[in-house]
Amino acid sequence: MLTAADLMTAYPVCIEATESPSTAAGLLRRHGFRHLPVTGTFGVLSGMVSDARIESAPDGTETVAAIEDPVEAVLLRDTPISVALTRLMAARQGVAVIVDDAERPVGILTESDLVRTAVALLPEDEEVAELPSRRVFAIQRVEPARNAMALMEEHGIRHVLVLDGNRLDGVLSWRDLEARGVLDGFDLRAADILGNQSVCFTTRRAPLVAVARMMSRQRIGCVPVLDGPDAVGVYTRIDVVEALRSRLALTGG
Q1: What is the pLDDT along the chain (253 residues), one digit of tens a residue?
Q2: Total structural domains in the chain?
Q3: What is the C-alpha to C-alpha distance for residues 15 and 35, in angstroms, rounded to an integer?
Q4: Which of 102, 107, 127, 228 has the fewest C-beta atoms lying within 10 Å of its C-beta?
């Protein structure tokens, strides 16, 4: 049976809580990460810091401890992968930290890791249409971005489509709102955050593995499903991970 240790990235890059946000930002840029586990006394896991948290930190913030968040998914090495997937899908952060018996980080497991695994394991003949798509939640590009935040909080989702009339114009994520300070009260329109964002989309007849491949290559977490010009559903990393979980259950993984 697969466990968290089989899919995790071992020896994760961490940062001490007493380090500065600028040091954390440098580590994130150097390694191309979006999250860093934060450690305290004796290397024990104390939290998580994200690039979005660093970007929105008030001027004068001296330590990572001031902006770190609790880790939503903490796992042990021998956690069955089915349990690990469930915990990871429930975490808004999109990342799980694997710890040893002393609660020191020994590995990290992200939705991106699992999407790459899905690319390798999902069959080529399974189409997007074979899986239930998520309900579409959308706002107009001229609306305040806080309207997207309200939809995310009300429905427990991480992505909202942005429309220009009836035409798909882009996708806003919780991370986008966090990075631009909307969670802290900054008053921006959806269009202000989107900028010139290009839109990736799929259709009902596309292979699911192709959607997973698109997510992995473009480093995106949500792909709208179009029927002609109309958005009729969305697929997220969580949906791909769910398909992976079903595949592993069938194959005994």
Answers
A1: 788 998 899 999 999 999 999 999 999 999 888 899 999 999 999 999 998 889 888 889 999 999 999 999 999 999 998 888 888 877 777 799 999 999 999 999 988 888 888 898 888 888 877 666 678 899 999 999 999 999 999 998 889 999 999 889 999 998 889 888 888 788 899 999 997 778 889 988 898 899 999 998 888 888 999 988 888 888 888 888 888 888 877 776 6
A2: 2
A3: 10
A4: 228
The answer to whether 110 and 94 have CB atoms below 8 angstroms apart is: yes
Within a domain: 121:
no
Phi, psi of 16 (to 5 degrees): -75, 145
Q: Is residue 40 part of a domain?
A: yes
**CB burial of residue 49 (10 Å; 0-12, 13-18, 19+):** buried
